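<purpose> Linking amino acid order to shape
<body> The protein record starts here
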Amino acid sequence: SDLRSIREMAGKRVGMRAITMQQPFAAAMAHGRGLFTRRGKPTKFAEGGEWVAVHCGSNSEHIKNKKLMAEVRAEWRECPSDAELVSQQKCILGIAHFVDGAFDAREAERQDFFLKRYDCTKTTAWRADAAVAAPRPISYPKGNLQVWHLCEEGFAQAADAANVLRLAQSGKKSGTKSIRPAEPKKAVGGERKSMSPAVKKEPLAGNAGKVRKRSKGSSKQVKETTGVRRSTRVKLEP
């Protein structure tokens, strides 16, 4: 029966939810470049934030929009090629730490380059404050609407279920709280003040930043990057 199928599906959940997005917005989310997604209704995430897998759907309409892609690449020089974006479809590209499931989409447009270029009339946005990109696309052929649960049988390779959870663990160990921005404050009239979501950064090969000591006697170091936002990368099992 349908009820039995639902119960069986629930028993195979891997312990993480996911959202499906389309390219190039899915890649931008996974790499910490665009940390908003526009949705038809509000949702709730775990208190204090929740790591959610960023799943890429199979729609290529945005990639075919030459004007959009030119603007995206002018803003995000590391954006994958059209062929690479297509090859990442039906895959999990990383995870994002969602903290708000009821953000005003009009305010989000003013804050986020990518959301502003997503042609949609939906009034709700979901906001993340950090992202961890997967080292390679993780095949997961079927997505879903809204926020949904990852299941073991959905992965093309069984080992990848553990790899996705490993991404979330890496996010927790790297100290998400230390990079999380303050909660949005209410401005006069009840509107939220503008805020920029924080993302994890890692210089890429050939573009490494300088390293300086944070303070005398401290062993901590701070990366001075070239200003391009990046997400954390994690090694996955083959």
